[in-house]
Amino acid sequence: MRVGYNSENLCILSVTVVSEMAMSRLDLIIEQLSIARLQTESLLDSITSEDWFRQPTEGVTHVAWQVGHLASAEYHLLMERRRGRRPDDDQLIPARFRSQFQRGSSPDPDSSQYPSPEAIRHVFDDVHRHAIEELRRQSDEGLDEPTEPAHPRFKTKFGAIQFCPLHEMLHAGQIGLLRRLLGMKPIR
Asked: What pTM, to 2 d.p., does this model score?
């Protein structure tokens, strides 16, 4: 089954039943990644560049860190843990970007310490596009192998892939809360 969504309000537009072939587990995850990305983009579309680094209160995250973190995590979960780091990956997501937004990093209220919102969004979009392209070409072979380094939430390469849309939805919720704390109305 393939589900088409309206990107503005995530309403189902169409459902296509594919009876000749069952959906592979990778196809299902790609579908979930698309749904999670639509949710995140719908939240980001109305946030101005000026609001990307605003923290509603000291010690709280900001949109720029959330989006950069999602790009970094998607790279790690869908690409690096599955096939290892490649030399040309630094063109896609530079090492400094990865370290600024990796798990365990903290949002800095000083926007001069970060790339611009447009640059962060560019990496966010490019990593997603490349990751999806790679997943579409990926066979099931080897996905049940352990992932390195070990992670407390999953044990295999497929587990890393499966965790990614869940992780994005968690951060989309944080972006939604940030929007409300910044005085914006809910999008739904």
From this structure: 0.88
3 state DSSP class of 18: coil
Q: Are 99 and 105 in contact (CB under 8 A)?
A: yes
Confirm if 174 and 66 have CB atoms less than 8 A apart.
yes
Residue that is written with structure tokens 């995590």 in the block: 73
Contact indicator for 118, 49 with CB cutoff of 8 Å: yes
> What pLDDT score was predicted for residue 12?
57
Q: Is the peptide bond before 109 cis (omega within 30 degrees of 0)?
A: no
* Amino acid 93: pLDDT: 98
What is the CB-side half-sphere exposure of residue 61 using CA atoms within 13 A? 20
In this structure, what token pair is assigned to residue 15?
């459902």
Which segments in the chain show pLDDT lower than 50? 19
Q: How many CB atoms lie within 10 A of CB 57?
A: 6
Say what the pLDDT of residue 150 is. 82
At the top level of CATH, which class does the domain 25-181 belong to?
A: mainly alpha
* Predicted pLDDT at 148: 84
